[in-house]
Amino acid sequence: MSVVIVLEGAGPGSFTVAVSPLAELSACLHALTETAHHPELRDWGRAVTANASAELRAGLRRFSPLWSALRWRGFYPGLDGTRPAGSGSGSGPTPGPGPTPGPGPAPGPGVGQGSGVGQGSALEEQLRTVARLPIDRFAELTAFACVNGYTRFDFSRLLRSAAQRAALEHAATALSAGRRELAAQLLRDPETCRADLLAFLDRCRSEFFAEVWAGAEPELTRSALAVRGRLASGAGRAVGSGSGHSRPLSATHATHPTRAAHATRATEDLAEALASLSPDSSRLGAPPRVVFDKLHHSVITPARTPVVLVPTRYNAPHLVVKNEPGLPPVLHYPVDAPEVGVTLARSRMLALTDPHRVRLCRLIAREPMTTLDLAARLSMTQPQVSRHLRALRDLGLVRAERSGRFVHYRLDLAAVERIGQDVVRALQH
Fold this sequence. Notes:
By secondary structure, the chain is α/β, with parallel strands linked by helices.
């Protein structure tokens, strides 16, 4: 299964980069309750929970289905269905027609307008957007999180349809007690459920997240600027580049090879920028598209529905893709994408199942050796040894060191030592 982003007809202006405190709060909550996913944050999580109030601890248990496998869409920009204000990579900030912000503190550096990244609403304003959401829509999105998916369910009339209520209860019960309890609360009193959730999220802000955000925001802003630059790098070459938007090639463009080449290059720049967000990505043509290896299937067409990119520090190594019906698609990407993805981790494990390669690795783990030495020790021909070494070098497990006219091969012990950790991280992408 995979998430496919079709780039035909898309340009830099088809993407918005938004720094979102509420999205980062969801990442923190995930790290607090799914500690096995984030061993590097374990000490931080223990410190937070050790100092947490009883109300915060209760909220972590009660609302945990909203940030486990399927993230609740309410955490992300564009919740009102409009394109969020942010750094549209082509023509600059493009505020959407969302609700007028109410009173509250001004956004901090790197979040508000004029920062160069665009407007990512302050946490208080994002929570107000959730509070203003029609209750039917709130119930629908929350129900999707309770059942860990939305492709097989229709909860658009959840509060008025006995059949949809029964479907939610049945699906949630089959998953876990926590999901069943949250679904029951939602059906019993959705307004109170939302009020309690908002109170919990505000408590998170006061108890630990304000400090987290002060440290994370500058890094997220730098990442957003960098991604914006990569997305926009081909804007000047795009057909009709005055607006920063590319247009699909037509028969007219076929008579202008230079324009066609520029448009193709602009699309390649977009594909390269998107593929850099995850090691489990591939770039395909006809039509041009980027494919992310995920556990669900989705097709996103930015030319028709602009995509929101949101950086995260606390969500690494996960790349979260949100594509709920009627809302802008969101890619919640780690600021430092892991170097090893599922495909490479699997290939490295398979490479070490061959008994000849295992013996070869045991020899060069002790000392560097030449192909001639290895062939003699392993009773193999030099071409056979060279093929094994080439495969291991391509996977990053063996390093070559030249000494005069000889080339010595050494096992990269650090890379081998990381295989288990890389597999765990790769399985979470």
